[in-house]
Please model this.
Amino acid sequence: EVQLVESEGGLVQPGGSLRLSCAASEFTFSNYWMHWVRQAPGKGLVWVSFINYDGTTTNYADSVKGRFTISRDNAKNTLYLQMNSLRAEDTAVYYCVRGGPLRSLDYWGQGTLVTVSS
Amino acid sequence: EIVLTQSPGTLSSSPGERATLSCRASQSVSNLAWYQQRPGQAPRLLIYGASSRATGIPDRFSGSGSETDFTLTISRLEPEDFAVYYCQQNSGSWTFGLGTKVEIK
Model:
């Protein structure tokens, strides 16, 4: 069974930084695009970022462009999200997600809560 | 940016009934997916490519539609189907609709 396990989030002050990681197992990590999707408390799903197989192509939602950086280490089967200049509106559960057929999102981690507050 | 509008916002139904959920795109999309999210759980892929069921998804779930109008149908609601459903498109970047909550009447 595909496993995606996000690192623990936490409480961060506005303007602060946090790096999330996602450990992937039970599939060939380097063969798949990967994504981050977030969900603010009580709200819907919002796509955040994508990275291709080897990390040479990335894309970001406008709301995080210039502040967040997605990366991957295929040797370690790990996906990352570096989040800088955090704002209150970045408070959300962040999901690590595998890219699936026809650009769908086929496997999701359990999510990790990031709270931005003073 | 392509906007996805889901309707209804909330659907009140009883177990055993048929549920029909709609997703309308602001412009034509090439691929559309549907996800289910139960309370306290991560989303789960149900349908991709508008009509293909994901691995392990029961055949009571079906998707249809093209271009700007898409439908998710649950033929007979089971107790575990009461959840929030999201559509998602991926022409360019990825965007989600706001969701339809299917609740027990």
User: Anything to note?
Assistant: Chain B is about 0% helix and 50% strand.
